[in-house]
Amino acid sequence: SAKAFHSKANALEALGKYEDALRCYDNALRCDPGDAECWFNKGITLKKIGRETEGIGCIENGVHIAMGSG
């Protein structure tokens, strides 16, 4: 489920396993592309590994969804 993948991604990110976390965020978003928090968390993780432009795009997706314009 999206929630399970999102929770696993958060745990992996906290352990510094960023690539594994990103795979789980992607799985979560395939299940629920409207999860604003997941988009935001994925963006932060991307930024941490130097993929800032891509990360900002994900964060912006999350903001648009959270504001009801995504």
| Estimated structural class | mainly alpha
How many β-strand stretches?
Answer: 0
Radius of gyration: 11 Å
Low-confidence stretches: none
Largest sheet: none
Give me the strand/helix succession.
HHHH
Shape, principal axes of CA atoms = flat
- Note the gap between the termini: 22 Å
How many helices? The count is 4
- Range of strand content: under 5%
Mean pLDDT: 96
Annotate the secondary structure layout:
Blueprint: H1 2-14, H2 18-31, H3 36-48, H4 52-66
Helix pairs in contact: 1-2, 2-3, 3-4
Structure, described:
By secondary structure, the protein is mainly α. It has four helices and no strands. Helix 1 runs antiparallel to helix 2 and helix 3 runs antiparallel to helix 4. It is flat and about 30 Å long. The two termini are about 20 Å apart. The mean pLDDT is about 95.
